[in-house]
Structure prediction request, 238 residues.
Amino acid sequence: MDAKQPLHSGSLLVSSAAYGSHEIIVETPSRTRQLWDLGLPAVIELFGVYMQRINALASAPGIRYVSVFKNHGGSGGASLAHSHSQVIATGFIPPIIKEESISVRNGICRYCMVIEAERKGARLCFENRSAVAFSPYASRFNYELWIFPKRHATALSDLSRAELRDFAEILHRSLRRLKSIGVSYNYFLHCASSGSKLHFHLELAPRIAAWAGFELGSGVTINTVSPEAAAGFYRQGA
Prediction:
């Protein structure tokens, strides 16, 4: 499809033809094993595939952002039982990425500041040489967890081989903890868009509690598990 699809604007509504691509990444040849059943080398290899597909798709004409995410389990929206991830390249930058991109202002990254604060607090989940994970303050989901490289990197491809291993190691440990309670989950990578300095990270969202009328009608989330309790749960497997 033509990358330069025109916008159709009326007095109230704006629309355009869809443009982009959608890919499925099969994580294992096994029909029964899930990502949390695999060893750390498999997770590291998966991140290498993510990196390759992001770089390839981002260079296509008209593509402005490449989203990488994983749905696991029925409550996580998985439509295939076989363990897999998905990659969607779009001709627009997702609104949440635009919103997060303002975290870097005047050369100062607010996420870097948050990382330093959380490393010293009760919401810390895991830490190794170059990566850190914590349950974010005012979490949206039960046992929500965010993984960041300690160094300010804007994309997965910015990480060195050692940093990539450290990042994958924390995701591997986190998924093993979720396996112990057998929950559905989503995770998604947040990379900087062109011209942005967004601090690259992964957000892990277990799907235990459903959003109902109050959440959907007010935009306010009720989370019955405090981030401090969630971090304690993850540290139990450390």
Helices lie at 40-58, 95-101, 110-118, 161-179, 213-218, 227-235. The mean pLDDT is 93.
